[in-house]
Every structure is written in structure tokens, then in C-alpha cells.
Specification:
- The chain is of the alpha/beta class.
- It has helices at about 20-25, 30-35, 45-55, 60-70, 75-85, 100-110, 155-170, 185-190, 205-210, 225-235, 240-254, and strands spanning about 5-10, 90-100, 115-120, 125, 130-135, 175-180, 195-200, 220.
- The strands form two sheets. A six-stranded parallel sheet has the order 3-2-1-6-7-8, with helices on both faces. A two-stranded antiparallel ribbon has the order 4-5.
- Strand 6, helix 8 and strand 7 (about 195-200) form a beta-alpha-beta unit.
- Helix 5 packs parallel to helix 10 (about 225-235).
- The longest helix has 14 residues, at about 45-55.
Length: about 250
């Protein structure tokens, strides 16, 4: 079933255990300014402001890169990514982090090449050598209109695009891994042959357990990198349609 599977990963608190934005804030001495501005700016704009502060202090893109390279990544998750890719799954990332942080961390860990696409807030280095972060959705144009997602990114719209593209390519199912509030909207769009892997006791897990009838996909929770690896590789090898037939026959015989 691997060749018929797209595995979609969130990044912060899913691929990495912590938060990439918070790592840069903490490790590069921005906590004071962050706490001062955190309730005055949207998160995306706040992160861009943090990078402006680093630039004003003389910190370079290379300094930020070295900070990000120190981000720990569970070896079980690295193994899961490599195994899923080797089995023939298409791997993508949908994240409200930013492209520079994600690519830097994954490249350092040797798994960037496993992912065919990364949908996240774009980033670039301007003519002054300052790293900039932009919103995924252009905030100056028509709002995306989703009440579940932040203004800068609706992951549900990304899922719509992915579902349209994979249906044309013959892909039968999606496995979605995430943890946060922003992962709930795309989870609602998954079908009965799909799987969602929420991180246990994180916001996505709480949303799902708050009203499980809204979720069509099969739910498999995880807590640690070891559990993520074990469950993901099991699901890749699972035929959800056949499982439903077996489960239905078992229910009828009881």
C-alpha cells in the first residue's frame, strides 16, 4: 500500500519535539522582546520582527543556521521518515513554521531529500542580509475565511489541493501527523480510508476527542518518537478497506 500513500507531517512538536520559533527566540536571547510584543502582533509578524532584532544586533543568517542545527530530532522519527520514503510513500510537510527553519533542520539531519514538497510560510534573505518571513496566504488579498485557522495559513486549503492532485495520480489515502490547533481543520477533511495521527494530549488530540463523530479518518494517537515510528510504519503496511471488511464481519458474528 506504500505506493498509494501520501504521508503529511506537521513540523513543530511533530517532526521535532519542540518549536523552531521558540528555539531561536530562547537560544538567541530574544525572550525579553518577545514577551513585550507577543500580544501586540500576529505570530507570523512577530517572528519577522524577532529576526529584524537579530539583524540589528549584528547576528547573521549563518548565526541563525548554527542555532537551528542544534535542534534535537528523535532518531526514531528520522528512521520513520527514511523508512516511509524507502517504501515508496510520498512525504510532504504542512507547517506554520517557515521554510528556512524547516529546510535548515532537515538538511542538517540528512532527511530533507525525503520530502517532495513543503507547504509553509515562505522566507528569504533580503538585500541587507536579513532573513525575512512572510505569511503563507497573502494577507493583503481576500482572507481565506476559515474560522479554525490563523490568518496567515489555513492547512485545510492545502489539504484540498493535495486531495485534488493525489486523486488524479491514483493515490488512495493520506496519513496525517500533527499536534496543534492548526492541524484540526485539515483533519476534518480526511476521508474514511485516511489516517490521522494526533500527538496524545496536545491540542489536535483534544479537538478529536472532544467530538470524535466529526472525524471520518481512522485515529491513531502517539506520544513518543518510538511510537510514531512503530504506528506510522504499521499504517503504511495496512489496507484500510480490507480492515473495515474484517472489522465489519467480526461485528456481525458477535
Amino acid at each position: 500500500m506504500a505506493g498509494n500513500t501520501v504521508v503529511l507531517f506537521d513540523f513543530d512538536r511533530t517532526i521535532i519535539d519542540g518549536d523552531s520559533d521558540n528555539r531561536v527566540i530562547t537560544e538567541m536571547g530574544l525572550t525579553g522582546l518577545f514577551n513585550k510584543l507577543r500580544f501586540n502582533l500576529p505570530w507570523n509578524s512577530l517572528m519577522d520582527r524577532m529576526l529584524e532584532e537579530l539583524h540589528s544586533q549584528g547576528k547573521t543568517v549563518e548565526d541563525i543556521t548554527e542555532c537551528l542545527k542544534g535542534t534535537p530530532l528523535d532518531q526514531h522519527i528520522i528512521a520513520a521518515i527514511k523508512a516511509a520514503h524507502a517504501l515508496g510513500c510520498e512525504l510532504r510537510i504542512i507547517s506554520d513554521a517557515n521554510l528556512f527553519y524547516i529546510e535548515t533542520i532537515l538538511e542538517h539531519q540528512g532527511v530533507l531529500g525525503c520530502f517532495s514538497r513543503i507547504d509553509t510560510n515562505p522566507s528569504f534573505v533580503d538585500e541587507e542580509g536579513r532573513l525575512r518571513i512572510l505569511p503563507f496566504h497573502d494577507l493583503s488579498s481576500t482572507p481565506h475565511g476559515c474560522k479554525l485557522c490563523p490568518p496567515n495559513m489555513c492547512k485545510g486549503l492545502v489539504i484540498d489541493q493535495i486531495q485534488a492532485s493525489v486523486s488524479d495520480s491514483g493515490v488512495k489515502r493520506i496519513i496525517y501527523l500533527g499536534d496543534g490547533n492548526g492541524d484540526y481543520c485539515p483533519t476534518l477533511k480526511l476521508g474514511e480510508n485516511d489516517f490521522v495521527m494526533p500527538r496524545k494530549k496536545y491540542p489536535l488530540w483534544k479537538h478529536i476527542h472532544g467530538n470524535p463523530k466529526l472525524i471520518k479518518a481512522q485515529v491513531h494517537e502517539w506520544s513518543t518518537g518510538e511510537e510514531l515510528e512503530r504506528i506510522l510504519l504499521h499504517l503504511i503496511d495496512t489496507n484500510p478497506i480490507q480492515d473495515k471488511i474484517i472489522s465489519g464481519n467480526a461485528s456481525q458474528s458477535n
